[in-house]
Amino acid sequence: MNDNMAFSEYSKIIIPGEGYNAVSDKRLLIPFMAYDMFGFLNSQGQIVIKAQYSLFYDDCYSIEDTIRVAKLITFGFSRSNGRVDTYKKYLWGLLNSEGKEILPLDYDDLIRNINNRELFTAKKNGGYAVIDKYGNIIVPYGKYQYIDGFDRGLARVNVYGKGEGLEKFMYKWGLINERGEEVLPPIYDSIWNFYGKNKQTTRIVKEGHVFDYNLT
Prior knowledge:
This protein has 216 residues and is mainly β. 0% of the residues lie in helices and 50% in strands. The protein is built from no helices and 18 strands. It has a 4-stranded antiparallel sheet with strand order 4-5-6-7, with no helix packed on it.
């Protein structure tokens, strides 16, 4: 097995703080870990955000860059027998290059647009939307049952079928662009996942017919 296969775009090399020179780091926000929480330094090595986040994604090299951060929360549901069941989940938000919170920790997921760092697919309370980094809504919650991340300016979406019998319980798939416009209407039985896979085409299925769609 190739050891490098264990690394992904989210892998980090951790070194002791006393052996690190923040001034030589080209990032505007530099993550650090204290116990099991993450905070951020500026390029002068000063703490701008104390260690308070459970997870973070992304790196910040320019003033346009943003960092996704999350906190693990515990919540409960009361049952009819009087018992309270507790659950845990991450809530995600967004920091700008100065460490200011521009999206609150209010999202179940934030999926970054691979080619446009301004846009995100947001999941909140079980619904999906497309938003920009300031929270402006491009595609509203509830329009689609699911919205995938954007890659090459396109994202898969699905809705419940509108036919009779079992058909109305089956998902139908389509494609939207970054403006929320339907490039392919949601009438297809399947559109293969292409997000983050560096693919030129994706496979589409409708009523037993299969064809490849050019993503470029």
